[in-house]
Design brief:
The protein is built from nine helices and 18 strands. The protein is an alpha+beta fold and 334 residues long. Helix 2 packs across helix 3, helix 2 runs parallel beside helix 4 and helix 3 crosses helix 4. The protein starts with a strand and ends with a strand. It binds adenosine-5'-diphosphate and magnesium ion (MG). The site of adenosine-5'-diphosphate (ADP) has 11 residues, from strand 2 and helix 1.
Length: 334
């Protein structure tokens, strides 16, 4: 069953954390709330969890209302059937790994087969040998796996993740990204995942909800968001973007023309109408698999980036070619 959010909003003493939002989180899918710090992601997640009371609107799973202001309905957090994984893991330091995972089952009085249910959850995250350890005896990655096991041991119908990888260092974060996604898939979970990291969002999600300043700007698959951003902020926030001077028509329409770095060509393109620009190369940055070439095009206000297989000396002047069909014209909603 899908999670349906209608007209949900929340303010804190004058700050609007979330303007009225309508969202559908589809069952069995991995959905990510993506946006910069302070845009309202955690507030939205906590309202779904029942840890924060909305000002207006409703939250439902299928036909079951979890929150409905007009109907004065507000199901308490522990009765919503959800699992939650936090950024700081939030494990009980005085409890063993086993007891941390068992906690939700005990408080929910679901202690039948407790031993085997907990051990199965620990086996899924490959920690069955560490059941008797305490959290401080585990690495950050292992602690996060305990937090994951604890969230899924109650067989929740939806698992909420709030920046679960951001406390880990970069290489571990990448490893855990792959591991966490395959766990979510193997267990057939529905995930609602919060992050400010666009790479995390792009690589893990079936669906991304891009937020800025308490508003939803765009919803779509990673491919849709990247290839067809429908807002200038979305294009800037996800992937690299190069901005062209707007023409008179574009200025009148209030749109900004933009293209992605990989679409700038070093040779004319046969059969595709192109614009050609005279550019000066400012710098080549080696990225291992390619060079990022930073350049200034004659008469253009913004600097651009493009990709090349070899270094180009700074100060080189050359022509570059941009297929017209690669130019997106974007408005700004905010
Ligand atoms: N308990 C609170 N009291 C006051 N303001 C809050 C509270 N929680 C969040 N906010 C404010 O609401 C906005 C959104 O915060 P948050 O949902 O935490 O954003 P994000 O998770 O995207 O970083 C911010 O301006 C934040 O300062
Ligand atoms: Mg947050």
């Amino acid at each position: 069953m899908d999670l349906t959010i209608r007209g949900l909003s929340k303010s804190f003493a004058g700050t609007t954390a979330l303007h009225p939002a309508d969202l559908t989180i589809r069952q069995g899918k991995f959905t990510t709330l993506l946006g910069p710090s302070g845009c309202g992601k955690t507030t939205l997640l906590r309202m779904v969890a029942g840890l924060e009371t909305p000002d207006e609107g409703s939250i439902a799973i299928g036909e079951e209302r979890l929150y409905d202001r007009d109907a004065r309905r507000n199901v308490p957090a522990e009765k919503r059937g959800l699992g939650m994984v936090f950024q700081d893991f939030a494990l009980w330091p005085h409890m063993t790994v086993f007891e941390n995972v068992a906690f939700g089952l005990r408080t929910g009085r679901r202690t039948q087969d407790l031993q085997s249910t907990v051990m199965q959850a620990l086996a899924k995250v490959r920690l069955e040998n560490m059941a008797q350890r305490y959290p401080h005896q585990l690495s950050g990655g292992q602690q996060q796996r305990v937090a994951f096991a604890r969230a899924v041991v109650t067989s929740p119908r939806l698992v909420l993740f709030d920046e679960p990888l951001s406390a880990l260092d970069a290489s571990l974060r990448e490893e855990m990204r792959v591991e966490m996604l395959s766990l979510v898939r193997d267990l057939g979970l529905t995930a609602l995942y919060v992050t400010h990291d666009q790479v995390e969002a792009m690589s893990m999600s079936d669906e991304i909800i891009v937020m800025q300043a308490g508003r939803v700007l765009q919803t779509g698959t990673p491919e849709q968001i990247y290839n067809r951003p429908d807002d200038a902020f979305v294009a800037r926030f996800i992937g690299r973007s190069n901005w062209l001077n707007p023409g008179e028509d574009e200025r009148a329409q209030g749109v900004l023309p933009m293209f992605r770095p990989e679409h700038l060509r070093w040779e004319p393109v046969n059969g595709a109408a192109c614009r050609t620009y005279d550019v000066e190369v400012l710098q080549s940055s080696y990225m291992g698999d390619r060079y990022e070439i930073h350049m200034q095009a004659e008469g253009q206000r913004e600097r651009w980036t493009a990709y090349h297989h070899s270094r180009i000396p700074s100060g080189s002047r050359m022509n570059v070619h941009l297929p017209l069909q690669r130019i997106h014209r974007l408005s700004t909603k905010l």
